[in-house]
Amino acid sequence: MMKLGMFTSGYQRNPLEHCFQDAKEFGYDYIELWGGRPHAYAPDLKAGDINEVRRLIEKYEMPVLGYTPEHNAYPYNYMIGSEAQREDAVEYLKLCLDMAKEMGAEYMLTSPANGGYLATYDELWPRLEKTIRELGEHAAKVGVKLTVEALTPYESNFFTRANDLAELFRRIDNPYVVGMCDVVPPFVQHESIMAYFDKLGDKMDHMHIIDGEQGTDSHIMPGEGSMPLQEMFHELARIGYDRTATLELVLGYINEPRMYARRAVENVRAMMAHAGM
């Protein structure tokens, strides 16, 4: 049965414990932990904060299956800048993989961000391939999957489509490097969500489920945007999707993350029930 996860970036102005408390109370199956301050920045975890994460996992019997470090803008983005900057980002993400392992996570998420306006594919593809190869080798060593996410064109000028993931997997053959679908990128590009499953096959390992509107990368409360989410759940039921799906509310609901996290999972559970999931 598909597992539903809570994404914690919208809770960053609340105590981390609220995430675990709410995930347990509201009926989430797991947490996808956002790796930024004040909650779970990898160098802070390494310095001792990992013990607090472990304590909360045990106290609330709520696993952290995914770790999503902040690395699309400042100060880390492995797709832009000098080679020294790329290497710095890679070292940071290797530490993130180590911390994912320490908290018992099954995967760490990475998304190739904007490579800069003057960069061409001839520059971007070798840079990405080198980076994911290096991170994938470390992922295999620590036993945590590296889950690669395509972004919207509002976030990246490079890695935005299912075809980009398919090309990455053609270039890199590593069982610890897998893909996912955030449903907003295909929706706003007039692409097919379900085509990710056809194109990626067994590499299609995770989802971010949320609602959206055309013309924006806003992540909207499930059931309150323009996406045909109810019908999508029927399609997921049809193919028997039984892996993880995080409800990624991000920052649009940061004023009341607890209220909206409850509404999100209740809305999605109702749609899943209607689809027979």
UniProtKB/TrEMBL annotation:
Task: Enumerate the transmembrane spans.
Answer: none
One family name in Pfam for this protein: AP_endonuc_2
Catalytic activity, EC: 5.1.3.41
EC class: isomerase
Provide the Xylose isomerase-like TIM barrel domain boundaries: 20-251
What GO MF terms are annotated?
Answer: isomerase activity
Q: Which UniProt keywords apply?
A: Isomerase
Which NCBIfam families does its entry note? PRK09856.1
Protein name (record): Fructoselysine 3-epimerase
Q: Which organism is it from?
A: Allofournierella massiliensis
The organism's taxonomy opens as:
Bacteria, Bacillati, Bacillota, Clostridia, Eubacteriales
